[in-house]
Amino acid sequence: MATRGRSGFCRSLPELELLLLAILVLLNGTVLSLESASSSEIHTGEGNNTSKKPFPVIGIVYDEVSIPFEISLWVLLASLMKLGFHLIPRLSNVVPESCLLISVGLLVGGILKLARDEVPPVLSDRIFFLCLLPPIILDAGYFLPIRPFVENIGTILMFAVVGTLWNAFFVGGLIYGVCQLAQDTYSEINLGNIGILPCLLFGSIISAVDPVAVLAVFEEIHINELLHILVFGESLLNDAVTVVLYHLFEEFMESGSVSAVDAILGLVSFLIVALGGVLVGAFYGILAAFTSRFTSHTRVIEPLFVFLYSYMAYLSAEVFHLSGIMSLIACGAVMRPYVEANISHKSHTTIKYFLKMWSSVSETLIFIFLGVATVDGEHHWDWIFITATLILCLVARVIGVVGLTFVINNFRIVKLTTKDQFIIAYGGLRGAIAFSLGFLLHTDHKKIFLTAIITVIFFTVFVQGMTIKPLVELLAVKKKHEAKRSINEEIHTRFLDHLLTGIEDICGHYGHHHWKNKLNRFNKKYVKKILIAGDRCKEPQLIAFYHKLEMKHAIRMVESGGGSKLNSSFPSTVSMQNIQPKIQSPPSARPAERALPQLTKGREEEIRQILRTNLQRTRQRLQSYNRHTLVVDPDEEGLDDLILKKRRMMELDWKIKEMTNYLTVPHAQGSPTMSRTRMASDSQAYVKPGAKGVPSIQIDLASPQSPDSVRLLDEVGQDQGLTMSLPSSSSRAYKTGGKDDDRDQQKLLRCLSDPGPSADEDEDEPIPT
Amino acid sequence: SVSAAHLLRLHQRFQLLDKDSSGSLRSEDLEAALSENPIGVRIVGAFFQLGQEMVDFPSFVRILAHFRPTEKNRTGDGVQPDPGTQMKCPSSVAFQLYDRDRDGKISRTELLQVLREMLGLQVTEEQLQSIAERAIQEANLDRDDTICFDEFRKSLEKVNINHKLSVRFLE
């Protein structure tokens, strides 16, 4: 993104943002106060319906639209905030977004309180659990990197279950002890009155690591995959534990007594909650996959199925008091491989964008509401209780992580180092889930509990969230690799899988490769046939991955103008022209004759030399996926520009050759992926083949019988740049003539110029077997 | 080395595989165990280096010992492959499985063979070709159209080889 042009502009923008924010908040405040005014007016108005009033030309009827209006205002506020933060790069580098958002929430809450002396109860538990939380979890679940998750599942479960239990009992028990020690019968709230059960309940609420907060903070620090999946997986899976403990202790508190039977029932209930949630999710996932098999004629509503089934999974789990989060994750993870094989490329893009959008807005809203609700709530600040809670939480987390790692390392091949343990412990952030659960409490001591919860949340988000980035730098923790997944990795990973399965077979050892292999085979034989439409069920993983990779690569190159003029504004004009539908525009109207500026022969050689060495680096300069940026622009500066474009153009025609091959080969042999994308697009291609006077790269279209060959003819013959052309002779049986070639090529480029998201690691991750 | 209990188990397994109780395995015995594996023949070939017909128990164990979980963490295998020593690092084991003619490089044909074995009859020849081509393009740094060992290792930086090439059974 060119920031050069905005340096002068930048100075005025933050002020603009603040102004907008102020306007909005005032608007919100006045609107809300108007609402109360107008509602009172109506009451008085009904009293004198006898006297005739003049016809009201303009009136304010706010009641009817008040709720959607307010919701939209809040969402708008959140989005503008997001915009604002990224315009001030210095701030967003130092402070994580979650902190800023909570501050904004505090501000807004404060303003509203001053304006109306009352703050709307925005973070009601229903809104939170039913509307705000599901998008985030679905986003996380759908794009969950399955392979690292499953590889580390043992560790994750240990941390989630045992770790959370340990935290809950440690904090709950010790806080009870502290309360007993610190009791003071003369103070307003006697700490000694807090029984053991409320304390344990409190402990269970506060001990859960929160996925929203973890996501928000870890997203920005780009830590290596292992740690990320460990902390994140733990935060997701501990929902089951939290749900069970919460209900358990609540029940106990109401019934007043605990027996051994109850404890055992609690254990059983935990298993039911966790497994039940997963089963419900898997069930809906399979349904969604099955439905997507038949959507080839109604592509437009495909994303809707994904969202609806997932949401239904969540709600169904909540109905039975099962873990909604686990159900959502299971649904997303189960349906993804099959759905992605069935839906069109555009639907996939839509799903992705929608999920990211919703989860982004949701997260922003949650943090803002957290701020607002803090201002609103009734608080009781008790120094002893709160500091004790804070210290105990930290201590419990550290001890828990260290202890568990000690045990787990005996079973892991890749051990967790001290640095890792530190990051895992430090990354245990609490968030809005804890707050909402606290909100739901019915005990007498709700105020003090809520205050403590909020303090802990603020502490973890602000202090830990802000300092984790410098600490990661300081400790030189391994960061995420920026490179995208390459075909090599894919091939080698599969090769190694087969190799290890073989070794295990030789040893007669039924290790996890063996079972994985069995699962794959079952999957391929039965499940895929049912859930994936058409020919795709037979397509091996590697091929699917390869196609995806190729297509993305081709799209990217076509977008950035393979082989065309070098002005840096070019990419935008290319995509603009792609969108406008033109049927047969005359060649002069097309952007550029696809001629590169004059290159001398020696220069070309030089360039090719540099390309070879630079290509590896170029690939690794691509940005990794990040929630805030969905599109990656390749770096293009000066000479690299020229080099890259030339290289891309060369690669592009290579791709064209292949794609065209797939398109022109009769359907039985063609790849279904290509035909699907061909049907699903409507933008315009722009390559004009066969320009005269420029050296051409002769492309020999491969026939199924002969090995393919690309002959780079005459590159050095003329010095006028390159373009590509299809060979004019069309003596092959399956081609219908040169004209069709052109049209096919155009069709191909049309479907390739979908300006979809690129450089996305999640997408690249092949559906694992 | 491998512990005593594991040695015992391996020995039992060896005897189980050795159908004719001759005290050494032939390739058919091993292939029978790997019948479903697409690269089974290749793996078996690794056991029978130097053109032997049979493999006895010590060599059996020695080869399997390559797949022991090692002490090295995620810091990557900094060990340089030394053709002279017995113990090779895991990635060179994998490399040798690709590189059947032992010339130190994976050529296009070798890669094609591997792909053909793994993907079977489900793909067309051009798809295989293009995958192989792309793989070589990506990994190839020295313009020689083959993948040498360093390039191989580099392209696998992200994949944690030590982790992958460990069978816990052999601890």
Provide structural commentary.
The complex is a heterodimer of chains A (769) and B (171). With 769 residues, chain A is mostly helical. Among the domains of chain A are: 125-475, Up-down Bundle (Na+/H+ antiporter like fold), CATH 1.20.1530.20; 503-542, no CATH class. Chain A has helices at residues 7-10, 12-45, 66-87, 89-94, 97-116, 125-142, 146-151, 153-181, 196-206, 211-221, 225-255, 260-292, 302-319, 324-342, 345-376, 383-408, 418-426, 432-439, 446-475, 487-507, 512-531, 541-559, 570-579, 601-620, 639-664, 672-679, 738-752, 761-764, and strands spanning 696-700, 709-710, 723-725. Chain A has a 3-stranded mixed sheet, with helices on one face. In chain A, strand 1 (696-700) and strand 2 form a beta hairpin. Chain A starts with 6 loop residues before the first helix and ends in a 5-residue tail after the last helix. Chain B has 171 residues and is mainly α. Chain B has 2 domains: 4-65, Recoverin, domain 1 (Orthogonal Bundle); 83-161, EF-hand (Recoverin, domain 1). Chain B has 9 helices and 4 strands; from the N terminus they run H-E-H-H-E-H-H-E-H-H-E-H-H. Chain B has helices spanning 4-17, 27-33, 40-47, 57-64, 90-98, 108-119, 125-139, 149-155, 161-164, and strands at 24-26, 54-56, 105-106, 147-148. In chain B, the strands form 2 sheets. A two-stranded antiparallel ribbon of chain B has the order 1-2. In chain B, helix 6 crosses helix 7. The longest helix of chain B has 15 residues, at 125-139. Chain B is globular. The termini of chain B are close together. The interface between A and B is large, with 54 and 60 residues.
